[in-house]
Amino acid sequence: GEIMNLYTINDKVRFYTVFRDTIYSIDEKGVVPEYIFDNGRYHLGENILYNDYNEVFEFGDACTKAGSIWDIRYLYETMNHLIFHYQYRNDFYTGLFNKESGETITSNTFFDDMIRMSEGNTHEMISIAGRTERSVFLKVPAVTLINDIKNYRQRCNDTEWKEYAGENPDILALLDTLTIEDNDILIEFFLKD
How many other CB atoms sit within 10 Å of the CB of residue 35? Predict the structure, then answer.
C-alpha cells in the first residue's frame, strides 16, 4: 500500500487500503470502520478480492470485467468532506463525499480554474504527495503544467487570457522559469470545509 493511506485529522488516526471501500480509525479500542462507501452494484466482491492472481494486472482485469469500483487512492479528508480518486473500468474518477449528508458526487473530469491542469484527466491532477490538517500538496510534472497552460492559452480568447493572467500572476511567473526537463512541482492547495 501507499504511505499516504495513513493520515491524521483532529488527532484521530485513519487509514484505508486501495482495494477496500472502508476508511478506518485506529484508537485504544483497536481498528474501527469510520466511513464506508456504498458502491452498490459496483462493490468489489470478495470472490474477486481473494482470488489467486499471478500479477496485479490480472486483478485489475478481473475488476474491470466485473464492473467494480476499485483502486481508491489519493484520499483527502476535510472537516465536512472526503475527496478521493478511484478507477472504474478503464477510467479514473474523482469523488466528493459529504460527511454530513452521506451524498457522493463523482466525475471523470476535473476542472481547475487556476492552473488549468489536464482538464478531463483526473489521474494527473489528483496526485497527492502530502497533506497537512488544512492543505494538500499535489505533485505536478513540469511538462504537464507547461503544456496545459499553453493549451489553455490557445483555446481561450484574448479577454479570457487577460482575466486569467490577472488572477494568476504567480503561476505565469513560474511558467516563465520552467523547462520540460525540470523536476515535478509541488503545489499546496488550501481546501475549504
Answer: 17
